[in-house]
TrEMBL record:
Species this chain originates from: Georhizobium profundi
Domain Cation/H+ exchanger transmembrane: 17-389
Membrane topology: Multi-pass membrane protein
Gene Ontology terms for molecular function: antiporter activity
Protein name per Swiss-Prot or TrEMBL: Potassium/proton antiporter
Keyword Ribosomal protein among record annotations: no
Gene Ontology BP terms: proton transmembrane transport
InterPro entries: Cation/H_exchanger_TM, Na+/solute_symporter_sf
Keyword match Disulfide bond: no
Lineage: Bacteria, Pseudomonadati, Pseudomonadota, Alphaproteobacteria, Hyphomicrobiales
UniProt KW keywords: Antiport, Cell membrane, Ion transport, Membrane, Transmembrane, Transmembrane helix, Transport
Locations listed in the record: Cell membrane
Comp. bias (Pro residues): 601-611
Length: 636
């Protein structure tokens, strides 16, 4: 008995270590790391090293706990500014978009796999949601810096669309298992959905408040605080499920609330949760890989791969385009959002539910979903970086690298102690002063400590300790940042010229005839950008004005544009995407077609006749015909 226990621990530890080591290979060769975790599980399974793990219930239980931890950390790491910026389109994608994807996928699955309509809908629900772990890894750790609007949309969508997919999957499994027609569940289905989402939102909000309140009031040992927070998040998850709500939605909302409040030991919590999230991802992907039987894949490989291609190139893009139409996303933004619809552990986890429900085609669901996830991670995961660059969504870094350490002080929930190393040619090294609100207290130079007041001008290599409010680290990061290297790509991205955003927009109109309306002439360029963007401008935003394009280079903390670039050839840097027309472009095309179909108005060349007698045509056929411009001039 003891030998078996040690053997299980030995094998499990080795698999985790191999998975952690594989991250070096992933970063070196650009491979999707989560794909490696999944393949390690497959290699160690029944058709590989021979580990026979077939406990679907245990896999679903552990996978659900791991997903709850991942979602809490996802919410904790999402800033409220990012959430507000992309909440509406992201939530639409997480609800309506999942339904669209499920329906479109079901239409194809109905005939490819010869499923019933309920089974086809179930298959669509299983693969209907994107995977938060895969999306967060590729966007946050993948080495690309894309526009804030697109990044926030993808992160919030992937974190919040699991409840909808889980609800649809569980409901459809119950309908198929009980033999209940879908039509009999119409009203009950809507009530159940509203109850689960409503209870999940309320429980998550209350749970987040409780977490913040308890952490700030209780004088816990510093090492216990992260464990206490994780335990509370799992309590929110489980209690919400018992109450009939969506525990996955609740734990994400709780993390979002707690992460945007002043909470004690925030740096320690972030580091601990980052490690827990990595462990949860490794365990979840390893277990799901162990549960699979690759020898069964060839029997359904062709239809499963066909469905994966349909999902990647048709169902997901069409669902994203229809969902984002009201939000006026640009073509390249919609194209990227539709491509970064990676399927991952959540789809495989949901594919376990038909096994637990003892459905007739349960094995087909699981194996086909597994193949679709593999295809998605290979095709989409490996191409996200080059596609983002091709679509022009990669923005240059705003500041250079910062050598910073966040330190914790006992009993301080509202302030932080930061230690910066002064790097050569940074603003503080070249003489720029540190703001008074930063309260610099200590400077270490050549191994000797001194008070900041007596240190004089800061030098490269100095370590500066500052006691500040947790709201201001970003402002200090710029002062201590390394200078950014000048790259040709940056110049191409920001245009040929720099312009002052505080100048009147009419000056730009006078120089380039940018087609401004009368009410826009008196606006500043900054106000014009805000109006055309429909809200606060963000770094890297672009606005096309007839034959020029304005690019936002920098914004302040209030969202005002402080620096902008001007491109005189906006079409040269824009990819040619024939699909994903925005609502504005569709409306413009419709107006053009309506104008073309209308008969041209006949404008009289002279005064109208005084009587009802038709005017006599006195045109000499031998004279040359007037050109269109001459006719227009005559009519004017």
């Amino acid at each position: 008995m003891l030998e078996a226990m040690y053997l299980v621990i030995l094998i499990g530890t080795l698999l985790v270590l191999i998975s952690a080591f594989s991250s070096l290979l992933a970063f070196r060769f650009g491979a999707p790391l989560l794909l490696l975790f999944l393949c390690i599980g497959l290699a160690a399974g029944v058709d590989g090293l021979g580990i026979n793990f077939s406990n679907a219930s245990a896999a679903y239980f552990i996978g659900s706990l791991a997903l709850a931890i991942i979602l809490f950390d996802s919410g904790f790491g999402t800033s409220i500014q990012s959430f507000r910026q992309a909440a509406a389109p992201a939530i639409a994608l997480a609800t309506i978009g999942v339904v669209f994807t499920t329906l479109l996928f079901a239409l194809a699955a109905r005939f490819v796999f010869d499923f019933t309509w309920l089974e086809a809908l179930l298959f669509g629900a299983i693969v209907g949601s994107t995977d938060a772990a895969a999306v967060f890894f590729l966007l946050r750790i993948g080495g690309i810096n894309i526009r804030d609007k697109v990044r926030s949309t993808l992160e919030i969508e992937s974190s919040s669309n699991d409840p909808m997919a889980i609800f649809l999957t569980i409901t459809l499994v119950e309908l198929i298992a009980n033999g209940t027609p879908l039509g009999e569940m119409g009203v009950d289905l809507l009530i159940s959905f509203g109850l689960q989402m409503g209870v999940g939102l309320l429980a998550g909000f209350i749970g987040g408040m409780i977490i913040v309140s308890l952490v700030n009031r209780l004088n816990l040992e510093r090492g216990l605080t992260p464990i206490f927070v994780i335990a509370l998040s799992l309590l929110v998850f489980s209690a919400t499920g018992v109450a009939g709500g969506s525990g996955f939605l609740a734990v994400y909302v709780a993390g979002l609330y707690a992460g945007n409040r002043q909470i004690r030991s925030a740096p320690t919590l972030k580091r601990f949760q980052d490690g827990m999230t990595w462990l949860a991802q490794i365990l979840m992907f390893l277990l799901l890989g162990l549960l699979a039987t690759p020898s069964q894949f060839p029997a359904i490989a062709v239809p499963a791969i066909a469905m994966a291609v349909f999902l990647i190139f048709i169902a997901r893009p069409l669902a994203v385009w229809l969902t984002l139409l009201p939000f006026d996303y640009k073509r390249e933004e919609t194209a990227f959002v539709s491509w970064v619809g990676l399927r991952g552990a959540v789809s495989i986890l949901l594919a376990i539910l038909p096994l637990l429900g003892n459905l007739e085609n349960a094995t087909t669901f699981f194996n086909a979903a597994f193949i679709i996830v593999l295809v998605s991670l290979i095709v989409q995961g490996w191409t996200i970086n080059p596609l983002a660059r091709r679509l022009g969504l990669v923005v240059p870094a705003r500041i250079g690298p910062v050598d910073k350490v966040e330190l914790e002080l006992p009993g301080t929930a509202l302030h932080e102690l930061l230690a910066y190393r002064v790097v050569p040619d940074s603003p503080v090294a070249t003489g720029e002063r540190i703001p008074r609100w930063a309260r610099p207290s200590l400077v270490i130079r050549d191994g000797k400590s001194m008070r900041y007041q007596y240190a004089g001008r800061l030098q490269a290599g100095d370590y500066v300790y500052l006691f500040i409010s947790s709201r201001y680290p970003r402002l200090l990061d710029r002062l201590f940042a390394s200078p950014l290297p000048v790259q040709s790509d940056d110049a191409e991205f920001f245009g040929e010229f720099s312009i002052d955003p505080q100048r009147p927009a009419k000056d730009l109109h006078a120089a380039y005839d940018i087609g401004l309306a009368k009410d826009e002439l008196d606006l500043s360029i900054d106000a014009l950008l805000t109006k055309r963007l429909g809200g606060k401008a963000e770094f890297g935003d672009r606005v096309v004005l007839k034959n020029v394009e304005i690019i936002v280079r920098d914004v302040d903390d209030q969202g005002r544009t402080t620096s902008a670039g001007l491109s005189l050839d906006p079409e040269a840097s824009r990819p040619n995407i024939p699909v994903f027309l925005s609502a504005r472009e569709i409306a413009a095309l419709l107006r053009q077609r309506v104008k073309r179909r209308q008969p041209p108005a006949k404008t009289p060349l002279g005064p109208p006749p005084s009587s009802l007698t038709p005017a006599t045509d006195t045109t000499d056929d031998r004279q040359p015909q007037s050109t269109p411009s001459e006719k227009q001039a005559a009519s004017d």
